[in-house]
Design goal:
There is one protein chain. This protein starts with 12 loop residues before the first strand and ends in a 5-residue tail after the last helix. It is built from 17 helices and 13 strands. It is α/β, with parallel strands linked by helices. The protein has a 6-stranded parallel β-sheet with strand order 5-2-1-6-7-8, with helices on both faces. Strands 9-10-11 form a 3-stranded antiparallel β-sheet, covered by helices on one side.
């Protein structure tokens, strides 16, 4: 069915006062769904991630491109004076504000939720910090890998006989961003009945602890630390990376049903599910080295393509690098890599959105904005003339 509607969040206005990943990714998701997101940045340096590292898109880093598409940008020093008044004018029409300054910073400027609530009662105000706004660590800064270490998440990663390893992408920041979007949507839904906005507070530490999920629940019930399992799984077997004739594939056939189908229909070993060493989840786990030896020997006889053709009905796939994964047919078919025009770099590739609506599509993508590229447009919209804009730019209030 053809899509007939506009993006679902058309009409919502968002002020993005955040930097780096968690806040910007939250706002990018809102922008993808049609919200009008204005990124309010330091007029001199912008978001810290603009200057992160190569490769570059024009003057900005790949890092900045990853989390800031579909936004507008204004460079504004909103700490006091006319800059603060400009922020208040922007807040008059804003539905959502997202910030990730360290707790206490917004209070110093009189811009914390409590100070804004009376003047802007419908505002949904989302704060993201490392350890939350209350508690003994609230004053500490924190970045994703530190939280991976402190939350216990890192203790589960790595090979059984090796050191713990961090997840290579900022997984806690990413999960925090997605939790933020859900919370903001819930607050907007509640606003329909109450007419009131509210303050949403998320801590990376809280999200990291919640992400321990079933592994953490196992500890809460047993008191036993889950053991590191490398590419395998702390409990389910066979779930692991296996070596075929021409490379590696990954298989997750841990249930008795899937293991039985794999043995009977793929490797022609109907005896294995009947073997006392392998006839239950716990037995396979206890005898994992013997089972893995059998499976690696079997997989080494054919190529990955041959095996995966036979395993299409089972959860298994080829180990791929970025080039292989991002040029694969499924990524093309699902539109997960797209091309946009960047004002300085020309055509650049961006990731697509994983969100698919039957009638209200995500918006057509634009590249992340240059610093202050919408300053004049936004200032005109809130009533400033050219001479006033020039004067404010001269004193560094805007860029």
């Amino acid at each position: 069915m053809a899509q007939s509607g506009q993006p679902p969040l058309i009409g919502l206005k968002v002020l993005d006062l955040s930097r780096i990943i968690a806040g910007p990714l939250c706002c990018q998701q809102l922008a993808d769904m049609g919200a009008d997101v204005l990124k309010v940045e330091n007029p001199n340096t912008g978001d810290d991630s603009r200057n992160a590292t190569k490769p570059w898109a024009g003057k900005d880093s790949h890092f900045f491109q990853a989390f800031n598409r579909n936004k507008k940008s204004i460079g504004l020093d909103f700490r006091d004076g006319e800059g603060k008044e400009i922020l208040f004018k922007l807040l008059e029409s804003a539905d959502i504000l997202v910030e990730n300054f360290r707790p206490g910073v917004m209070s110093r400027y009189g811009l914390e939720y409590r100070s804004l609530q009376g003047r802007f009662p419908r505002l949904v105000y989302c704060s993201v910090s490392a350890y939350g706004e209350t508690g003994s660590l609230s004053d500490r800064p924190g970045f994703d890998p530190v939280l991976q270490a402190e939350s216990g998440l890192m203790s589960m990663t790595g090979e059984p006989d090796g050191p713990p390893l961090r997840h290579p992408v900022s997984i806690i920041d990413i999960m925090t961003a997605l939790h933020s979007v859900g919370a903001i949507m819930a607050a907007l839904w509640a606003r329909q009945d109450t007419g009131q906005g509210q303050h949403i507070e998320l801590a990376l530490m809280d999200v990291a602890v919640a992400a321990l999920s079933n592994a953490g629940q196992s500890f809460l019930l047993s008191g036993q630390q889950p053991k590191r399992a490398g590419n395998s799984h702390p409990l389910s077997t066979p779930t692991n990376l296996f070596r075929a004739k021409d490379g590696d594939l990954y298989m997750a056939c841990a249930s008795d049903r899937l293991f039985g189908k794999f043995c009977r229909e793929v490797i022609d070993r109907p005896d294995l599910p009947e073997d006392p060493r392998f006839n239950s989840t716990s037995a396979r786990f206890d005898n994992r080295p013997q089972l893995f030896e059998i499976l690696n020997e079997t997989f080494s006889t054919k190529t990955r393509e041959e095996w995966l053709r036979k395993m299409r009905h089972l959860p298994a796939g080829s180990l791929q690098n970025f080039e292989e994964a991002l040029s694969s047919e499924i990524v093309k078919e699902r539109g997960m890599v797209t091309e946009v025009e960047h004002p300085l770099a020309g055509p650049i590739k961006l990731f697509g959105s994983p969100l698919n609506f039957s009638d209200t599509p995500v918006r057509e993508f634009t590249a992340a904005p240059l610093l202050g590229s919408h300053t004049d447009e936004v200032m005109h919209e809130i009533g400033y003339g050219d001479a006033e804009i020039a004067a404010l730019r001269e004193v560094g209030t805007i860029n």
